[in-house]
Amino acid sequence: MTDAAPNPLRDPRDRRLPRIAGPCGLVLFGVTGDLSTKKVMPAIYDLANRGLLPPGFSLVGFARRDWANQDFAQIVHDAVKRHARTEFREEVWKQLAEGIRFVPGDFADDVAFAKLRRTIEELDQERGTAGNHAFYLSIPPKFFGDVVGQLKEHGLTERDEGSWRRVVVEKPFGHDLASARELNAVLADVFPTGSVFRIDHYLGKETVQNILAMRFANELFEPIWNANYVDHVQITMAEDIGIGGRAGYYDGIGAARDVIQNHLLQLLALVAMEEPTSFAADSLRIEKQKVLESVVLPRRLDLSTARGQYAAGWAGGEKVRGFLEEDGVKKSSTTETYAAVKLLVDTRRWAGVPFYLRTGKRLGRRVTEVAVVFKRAPHLPFGPTATEELTHNALVIRVQPDEGMTLRFGSKVPGTQMEIRDVTMDFAYGGSFTEASPEAYERLILDVLLGDPPLFPRHEEVELSWKILDPIMEHWAGQGRPEQYEPGMWGPSTADEMLARDGRTWRRP
Amino acid sequence: MIELLDTTAAGIAAALVKARTSAGSPVMGMVLTLVIVVDEDEAEAAMDAAKAASHEHPARVLGVILGDGRGTGRVDAQVATGQGWSGETAMIRMRGEVCRHAESVVLPLLLPDAPVAVWWPCDPPDDPATDPLGALGQRRITDAAAATRARTKAMEIQCASYARGNTDLAWTRLTRWRALLAAALDQHPLKVRRASVEAERISPSADLLVAWLQDRLKVPVERRSSEGPGITEVVLETGEGDIRIARPSGGLATFTSPGQPDRPVALPRRAIPELLAEELRRLDEDEVYAATARRLAGRGATKRAQRRSTGRRTTRRTGGKTS
């Protein structure tokens, strides 16, 4: 850009003014998927409703369907009506609808991509999108290569001076280190690093961003945020549902690749990292990367990991099928639906503090949380019976649902002589926040359009995560079939034994 | 709901604790106290707006209705938690002598440490910061557009008495307009030569918008009258052509800029709960509003001085409203 004078209507002190994305459009591949209709389209509408999309914003759908523009607009309309967070306003819809286009075609279809190019050029003319376009690949990763190759071949990735082209991809970012590198090579071949946005929707959540606020804006927690006071950390992401109709995706991938590699390791990085020099994307990434580089695996993986498959039984009052009986799952499948691992962070701050990560399907309830469990007081000046029910102090960051924070500490039971028991103190900005606070996808899509990358993992982080996970996956591959666990409970007994060996127990979230 | 007749602050405080305990959840997750000073007629609408805003900002909401100030003092209250509220509420009705000492009832009921916002949904005091109730808050929210007396001058009066922490919903209503205008100049970094704002004849928001544009752009800004609703058009004149946002019917606007096709853009008029929620998001001083208020107040003062010195009727009729 030229040395234009600063915009006189902007003032850094004017924090009411939201940042509105500049003129741009979004091209969506894979328009009928769950993710597109439940998350992406509603988020776009919600952004428009909040006045954060530029006038002239355009949405182009690309799929193998025999549709006209109106048909696609109808799909978007229905998705918005059903899933949008904010109320439906006719004028907002009108603003959006005028910019909706559809290009029918196959990923191998040259004619279709030529038409896509013409469509985008027309939009630049008619709607003033100024050559700025983001390509959202809501499609299986095996097609990334085809689509990106086509985009390049048809000149869709060429940009004029001052405009941008970006690509957005969803997890999984590969299934091991080699495939992640391959995938990255495919994208990097066409798009420069800064133009690739990997969406890990957990990072768009308010509570996750609040981890940074809590850690670095307060004086209260930082002094105890280290191995001197912290006994261990438990990071849990549990789902009460089974795999549903996703056998095709899930079988062969499993819980560890699906969740630990991205969400849980990102949470670990945010909890364990040092203070970044600023909240700029690069500074954050450097710190996260440092932590991920310092993660080491225990020597005996058989003693420090656990996995399982949910069996048939009762969960939450419902009779449910076991994983091996789900449609589309091979009877001989060794894919785990529960995974727990113990990781160590080799830094001065965390030396000797284990991080236990667990995730699973068909567990007791849907919950994601980070529990920082503190050591017991070194000396208790009470009688031995007084503190029998006192365990460890803990600080729990509840990511979802019911976002908030819980502090567990000991308190005297009223009416007794001196009986000390665990009590919890709850902060639930959350309960109400869920309604009013923007969905993670809104934040992330807006950040893509603004070109603001702090909340997106870079390929270095993705590769480091695979380096952590690959040895575990290899170990499991040689272990035969995973243990069956009862649905609706908290996972296989081997996971409990794994903690018991360290003299600890899993928290019931 | 707990009904208290002829009570005191201590009685209300005890009832709040009791209501919380009987609701089964003795925890307090409230982030601020919101004091609403309101008339009996407007009370219900104001409490509804606060209820909606409480979902984003769980708060202790104290509705204060000041009745007839004559006779012996009496305080009645209704205390509740839950029922669609995130937080807890007390509706306090005062009459008689105590009306002149309302702060003595409210002060003991403020949440410890948490920030306090005071909101006047209709007629605000001329100087909210020195008002006894206003002085309790670090955020004082007025609404010049809802004033029932001195309607043409309500905004000027508020601007003239501006103090740190004051804000007016007429300013909040402008956020979308201002965001769009700022975004327009992001896209077209052009020098603006002059500007104009067209709105209803009495529109505090339009007056503020004129003052803001003058303050930021340092160019003449013309104020034109229309039938409304609210602000109907803003034009920024540049060397390459006009940047124009026209919203003739309050909802969908048309955005016109040099060398670009016309584009529709949603610019809805936002309801009070949404405005209130925006106000409660930031409780520190709004420096840009401060500068805008100073400019508007300064302009009013100059005009009054001119009027006094010339004494011409015509100036009086047009001045201050349409220019």
Automatic annotation (TrEMBL), chain A:
Keyword hit for Transmembrane: no
Catalytic activity: D-glucose 6-phosphate + NADP(+) = 6-phospho-D-glucono-1,5-lactone + NADPH + H(+)
Domain Glucose-6-phosphate dehydrogenase C-terminal per the UniProt entry, residue ranges: 212-507
Taxonomic superkingdom: Bacteria
Stretches the record annotates as Disordered: 483-509
Binding-site list for NADP(+): 64, 106-107, 171
Name of protein: Glucose-6-phosphate 1-dehydrogenase
